[in-house]
Design a protein that fits this description.
This protein is about 10% helix and about 55% strand. It is mainly beta. The chain has one domain: Lipocalin, CATH 2.40.128.20. The protein has a ten-stranded antiparallel beta sheet, with no helix packed on it. It is globular, with a radius of gyration of 19 Å.
């Protein structure tokens, strides 16, 4: 009985360690041809995602450059619709963390959560913004998968904003 218990504990420990076996660290550049972008994302000229990862947390910093809109005008969105740099740090213990991001109307509270499995990393980001027109909720759910050779990162994004929902599949190559 004692041998079975020790074996069970070692098996659980090995599984827990292997769940964190994927190392997403690196600099990743968008392969626009291999990606599936919705209408709002088709004007992305370039996107670089820099990921740093430790045993306890993962940070994604995304630098996006977008083409100017054909009508010459921009949309509101604090750089979201026009490109820019965005960064978020998630803990890998499955717990929600609170953070603040700078927005066009001041600081925006954000709730971040990561769920790690053996072959996927699921990241969620939820924000509620108070505006003169009322509260607006934005949700981003990302699923990251790494190719077997570690040279391709696929980031599937589901995003819900007051403008509606969108889905994108960003295929990124390691630099």
């Amino acid at each position: 009985m004692k041998k079975n218990f020790v074996f069970l504990v070692l098996t659980i420990l090995a599984f827990s360690i292997s769940a964190f076996a994927q190392d997403y660290s690196g600099t990743w550049v968008l392969d626009k041809e291999a990606s599936k972008l919705d209408d709002r994302s088709k004007n992305i000229e370039s996107m670089t995602v820099t990921i740093t990862q430790s045993e306890k947390e993962i940070t994604l910093t995304t630098d996006t450059k977008r083409a100017a809109s054909p009508d010459g005008g921009g949309r509101m969105g604090g750089g979201r619709g026009m490109g820019g740099t965005d960064s978020a740090t998630y803990t890998l213990d499955g717990k929600e963390t609170k953070a603040e991001r700078e927005g066009p109307m001041g600081k925006i509270p954000v709730t971040l959560k990561a769920k790690v499995s053996k072959d996927k990393l699921k990241l969620s980001r939820n924000s509620e913004i108070n505006t003169p027109m009322g509260a607006m909720t934005m949700t981003i759910a990302d699923t990251l998968t790494l190719s077997a050779d570690g040279k391709t990162l696929t980031l599937e994004r589901e995003q819900t904003t007051p403008r509606g929902s969108s889905s994108n599949k960003f295929v990124l190559k390691k630099q």
